[in-house]
Structures are given as C-alpha cells and as structure tokens.
Amino acid sequence: MSDNKPTVGFIGFGDQGAPIAQAIADGGYPLHVWARRPESLMALEGHAFTTHSSVSELAAVSDIVGLCLREDSDNLQVAVEGRLLENMRRGAVLVNHGTGLPQAARELARLAEPYGVEVLDAPVSGGRAVALARQLTTIVGGRTQVVERLTPVFRTFSKEVIHVGPARSGQYGKLFNNALMMMNHQNVIEVLDLARSLELPTRPLLDVLRSGSATSFALQAIGPSITSENVHHLQPLELLDMQLFSGAVDALGNQARTVVERAIDGARRLDELTAVVGA
C-alpha cells in the first residue's frame, strides 16, 4: 500500500455489498469495481468509482479487494477461475464480507498463500437498513497486523470492527451470532404462542417485552427491519445461514444438535412471527 489511501477493488453489489461500496467511496478510498451484471452498478450512482471489464484488470490495480458474494462457490469462482488471486499484487489483501463456512475461509487463505496475498474473512452483521446507515458490525478473522491495516476501511461502513481470531474465526463469529438471533426468534414465537392461548392482547405484551429486561435485537428487529414485505426474501437467507452453521459445527456431533435444531426452527417460523407481530 502507498502512503495515500489504498485502492479498493470491490465485487458484489447486493443488499449489503452496494452500501458497503458506497461508504468506502465516500470515505475517500479510490474504488474500483467489476460486476457480472453491469446493471447492478446502478446502485453506485452518485459515488466515485472506476469500472473494469474483467476481474483480472481490477485485481491488478487494487491494494485491497472486497468480495460480498452470496456463496463460497462464488468466491472460489472469482478468485480462481476469474484469476483474481493470480493478478493481485504481492502483499495485497483479499477480504470476504459474505457469510460462509469457516472451512471455506481457511481454504481461500490457503489458495492465496502462493501468490503472497493476505486473506481476511470479514462477514458483516446488521442487514440492509443498518448497512445503509453505515452502522454494521464487521466480524474479522485473520492476522492481527492485516486487520489493523484494514480497520480504517472497515470503519467507513461499521459501528464496530471486532477481530475474533485467525482465519475462519470471522465466519464462526457471524454464524454463532445468527444462530443465537434465530434461537431468540424461536423464544419470542413460543412466548407469544402461550400468550395467545391465554387470550392476552399481543401488542401491549410486545411493548413490555421490547421495553423490559427481556428485550433483544431479535425482538427489536421485528417490524423495523424484518417485515411482512421483506420476510420472504430474508427467510431463505436465514435458512441458508443456519445450514452453514450446521456445517460449521458438524464435528461436534450431538453436542451441537439442540442449538442447531432450535436455530433452524426459529428461521423456519420467521414469517409466522412477522405475521403475529403485524396483526
């Protein structure tokens, strides 16, 4: 990296990727982008950026490359088949902001090592509304020195940057976070089921739960962030995350089964919860 702000390449402009890229550009970092579908770059209108015609071209000019793609297989396709790693500079840093398996994060770091490229797994938590407010929590796995170098970039879109540990730790942190949120959603559903059986009015009870010691982000998010309008978009993503969580803790066997099952149940009933809260 030069004495000036490092050049940041970015790939992946979905619900969270686009706001992250916007924040990086507005933070004064030279932003270079590539998109499989050029129309997705419309999300960056009004922000300074340079478009490239290939992954290789973007890689060659970037000190840092951020990926915010849907699945681990997408990362590998871009990094290997798209020749991203092959064309990145030695000492450059590849950052994965997507959610995936810790095992895949470690594999990406292994593939990057021969090219002298550092890799951080840095998934984000908070959802689209929080991303637009630039208040995400960024959960980072990787070498301490590299995390420290990139923290100013992360702070352009984050309220918290938490270094959890070595490569793959960021993904573990994100998956445990999501699993506990889904378990909390299941808790809320079960409490409301009991209340309805007693014919208690739902809305005042929700006011109590949100204002009292029982409150949680999972409870607060129903309504403002998770609504009947977007739940059918969010629910498959949460179920995918719970599948990833199950795969991440599979080696623990029966020790993890209760947590996994409860988290999956919470994700499956997310639409039911929004319907009850909105009633």
Low-confidence stretches are none
CATH architecture of the largest domain: 3-Layer(aba) Sandwich
CATH topology of the largest domain: Rossmann fold
CATH superfamily grouping of the largest domain: NAD(P)-binding Rossmann-like Domain
Q: How many H/I helical runs?
A: 13
Nearest-integer average pLDDT: 94
Rg, rounded, reads 20 Å
Which CATH class of the largest domain applies here? Alpha Beta
Distance between the ends: 54 Å
- Share of helical residues: 40-55%
Count of individual domains: 2
Number of strands: 9
Largest sheet: 6 strands, parallel
Which strand order spans the largest sheet, edge to edge or round the barrel?
3-2-1-4-5-6
What best-fitting shape do the alpha-carbon axes yield? Answer: globular
SSE order: EHEEHEHHEHEEHEHEHHHHHH
Query: Which structural class best describes the helix and strand composition?
Result: alpha/beta
Strand content: 5-15%
